[in-house]
């Protein structure tokens, strides 16, 4: 088990979470306190919120203490992100500006640029070795803004969450094949965490055997891809609120695999700044198949892509290019 993941001198893992009084954090914080990304290791939690939600975050702190987690160290609440990020080993950026009714996508991107630019600067200054996961939407482009401002943080240390999409895709395929999700490997969700994403089951295996034919091309294009890509909206319609516990669970999966490594040759879906792999332009924060090796994400190379895969990847890439152009125009990235 790799354990080269701390930058502070004590053995404790310093974890900062923005949006700490929100619904995702309400599940995430308790799983972090239970030691799920750092088994056996003390965890210090920094809860970061905006002023109006500070008191609610203090309430969450009270509950965290009431749960008497054996591994939980200090829990502090901060309205100054820079203060909360100080010496953080792991950072979950969950807080973001939600889309208002009738709001244009460009305005949403700009509103979030105003959050993720300064947070990037602060992280670069006070937590240059942090592993960062952006959850708050639009997650990929928020992460691109963050990466542009986080001087001193290696690009592959800034990620956006595709793991919920990945897990949703696994679950849909497992149901279709009537196998447990644990039997499946080789799923990829490419591109943007949005309806343009490409959940790709081409390389999927169940207990090592290829299953693409078994899934059926019609089921894949008519049911699987749209269902996974629009699952967030389906959850809102049925549950009445957006995904929360499943999002927190995916964030835990992402960070645990990052810190402790992925299994053998298996890969998972992670959005990170492209290095040009698979022809995706540098700077786009794009969902790729990734392995975690020695505590770092590496993009899996050499997957052969057919024409339809290339077209679907190009589609989600185009959306991300448009998002990046919009934040450039708004002055959030040079
Ligand atoms: P909530 O509205 O319940 O909580 C968000 C919290 O963030 C609020 O308490 C708010 O005060 C806080 N916040 C806002 N700006 C902040 C700032 N600058 N610094 C610190 N805190 C700030 O939303 P929740 O359901 O928890 O969702 C959080 C974000 O995750 C949303 O942007 C949502 O769209 C996104 N999601 C991303 C997913 C993914 O797979 N990447 C899936 C789930 C979720 O939809």
Automatic annotation (TrEMBL):
Tell me which Gene Ontology terms the entry assigns under biological process. Answer: malate metabolic process; tricarboxylic acid cycle
The root-end lineage is: Bacteria, Bacillati, Actinomycetota, Actinomycetes, Mycobacteriales
Could you tell me the superkingdom of the organism this chain comes from?
Answer: Bacteria
- Domain named Lactate/malate dehydrogenase N-terminal is located at 14-152
* Reported function: Catalyzes the reversible oxidation of malate to oxaloacetate.
* Residues that coordinate or bind substrate: 99, 105, 137, 168
A GO molecular function annotation here is:
L-malate dehydrogenase (NAD+) activity
Q: Which SUPFAM superfamilies match?
A: LDH C-terminal domain-like (SSF56327), NAD(P)-binding Rossmann-fold domains (SSF51735)
Chain's gene name = mdh
Q: Where do the Lactate/malate dehydrogenase C-terminal domain residues begin and end?
A: 163-327
- Which reaction(s) does its UniProt entry say it catalyses? (S)-malate + NAD(+) = oxaloacetate + NADH + H(+)
Protein family: Belongs to the LDH/MDH superfamily. MDH type 2 family.
The residues the record assigns to binding NAD(+) are 19-25, 112, 119, 135-137
Q: Which residues form the active site?
A: 193
**Keyword Nucleotidyltransferase on this protein?**
no
Spell out the protein name for this chain: Malate dehydrogenase
The record's keywords, sorted A to Z, are: Coiled coil, NAD, Oxidoreductase, Tricarboxylic acid cycle
Q: According to the UniProt entry, what is the EC number of this protein?
A: 1.1.1.37
Coiled-coil regions listed: 303-330
Organism from which the protein derives:
Corynebacterium urealyticum (strain ATCC 43042 / DSM 7109)
